[in-house]
Amino acid sequence: MKDNNISISVIKRLPRYYRFLENLKNNGISRISSNELSERMGLTASQIRHDFNCFGGFGQQGYGYNVPELYNKIGEILCVNSEQKTILIGAGNLGKAVASKIFQRRSGFNLIGIFDKNEAISGKMIHGIPVRHINYLENFCRDNSPVCAVICIPSNDMKELTDLLCKLGIRSFWNFSNYDISMAHPEALVESVHLTDSLMTLSYLTSSEEAQRG
């Protein structure tokens, strides 16, 4: 990697490169040019070369990119093989679905604890991990030192929870609530997933297209 001063827009494209390259690799394609990759991904070849050059560049003049090698290199950059200790708060339908996504493939995170305030589901297993009551959260964090929290609970419970998690050493959040963690904790690393916002955006685009069709 050349340096750490890489724009977030480049970082956010890396998982998409990783996904496309995995598909190419699984289909037996061992070599691809930036032009061919650009056609498949809907990006320009110059954009792809620029993105890869941020990390030192991986292609060879006249050869293109070695697909398995590039796939592995991007995986290394994304740290998909690391197992950063992670907890999940909220074991409802969304929490279960998110837990499944973490377990389905290498993500860079190792889910070690699941918590919920609903006593009726305490002790139930999700992918071999028992759901603990939220009252056990503080002691669990002090004993196991997780660094990341996945949040799948309503926003009205978030302020007190995130204050506690940050105090307990949580540095990053995968946030499925509408609560803005970054406003209260600007030092935290936050990746927010706003499902309703995404759906409303699609609603607007769909309605606009229908209106244009007349």
Question: What features would you describe in this structure?
Answer:
With 214 residues, the chain is of the alpha/beta class. 47% of the residues lie in helices and 17% in strands. It is built from nine helices and nine strands. Strands 5-6-4-3-7-8-9 form a seven-stranded mixed beta sheet. The protein has a two-stranded antiparallel sheet with strand order 1-2. Strand 7, helix 7 and strand 8 (172-175) form a beta-alpha-beta unit. The longest helix has 19 residues, at 8-26. The chain starts with 7 loop residues before the first helix and ends with a helix. The mean pLDDT is 91.
Please outline the major beta sheet.
Answer: 7 strands, mixed
Give me the number of helical elements. Answer: 9
* Poorly predicted segments: none
What distance separates the N and C termini? Answer: 51 Å
> What is the H/E order?
HEHHEHEHEEEHEHEHEH
Counted beta strands: 9
Q: What is the beta-strand fraction? A: 15-25%
Task: Name the structural class.
Answer: alpha/beta
Specify the helix fraction band.
Answer: 40-55%
Descriptive keywords:
single chain; 214 residues; alpha/beta; 9 helices; 17% strand
In brief:
The chain has helices at residues 8-26, 34-41, 45-53, 67-77, 93-104, 137-144, 158-167, 181-184, 195-213, and strands at residues 31-32, 65-66, 84-89, 109-116, 125-126, 129-133, 148-151, 172-175, 189-192. With 214 residues, the protein is α/β, with parallel strands linked by helices.
